[in-house]
Amino acid sequence: MKTSIYTTITKEGYHSFPGAATLPKFATNDGMDVSHLANKHMHYFKIRVWLQVSHSNRQVEFIQLHRWLENYYGDKALDFGASSCEMIAEELIKSVAKKYPTCDIKVEVAEDDINGAVVEYDAR
Fold first, then answer.
1. Which of 10, 37, 67, 99 could form a disulfide linkage to 20, CB 3.0–4.6 angstroms apart?
2. How far apart (Å, rounded) are the C-alpha atoms in residues 121 and 124?
3. What is the number of domains present in the chain?
4. Residues forming beta bridges with residue 51, ordered by sequence position
5. Alpha-carbon dihedral 89, 96, 119, 21, rounded to 10 degrees
C-alpha cells in the first residue's frame, strides 16, 4: 500500500511562450494556431504537491505543507517568464525535495485548472 498527502494552492501568474509566434507547428494560421501565447498572458495556476509518506499518523502535517507552499510563492502575482507548466513543476520539485528528502514527490501545475503537467520525483 502507498499513502500520500497533498496540498493545493492557486496563484495568479503570468508567462509567455516566445516560440509560439515563430515555430511552424504552433503558428499554423488555422484553427490550431496558438501564436498568441508568445505574448505575456495570465492564468490562475493551480499548484498541487503530493508527498508519499511511510505511515498514516501525520509524518508530514499537510497544513504545514500548505503553509510552506504558500510562503514559497508569497503574496504577489507570479511571473514565470517563459517557463512552461512542466518547467515550473520541475523547479518546485527541487525545493520540495530539499525540504522532504526522504519522500517521493509529485507536483502538478495546471493553467486555470484545465491543462497542466505532472512531474514525479523518486527519493530512492
1. 37
2. 9
3. 1
4. 5, 105
5. 10
Cell readout for 22 is: 515563430
- Domain assignment present for 23: no
pTM higher than 0.85, yes or no? yes
The three cell numbers locating residue 74: 508569497
Q: Measured between alpha carbons, how far is 106 from 114 in angstroms, rounded to an integer?
A: 18
Quote the crossing angle between the two packed helices 62-73 and 85-99, to the nearest 10°. Answer: 120
Q: Are 117 and 89 in contact (CB under 8 A)?
A: yes
The H or E element that residue 39 is part of is: none
CATH number for the domain harbouring residue 108: 3.30.479
Range of the domain at 105: 3-13+42-121
Q: Cell numbers at residue 84, please?
A: 512552461
Q: Over the stretch 7-46, which tens digit does the pLDDT of each residue have? A: 999 999 999 999 999 999 999 999 999 999 999 999 999 9
At 61-105, the pLDDT tens digits run 999 999 999 999 999 999 999 999 999 999 999 999 999 999 999
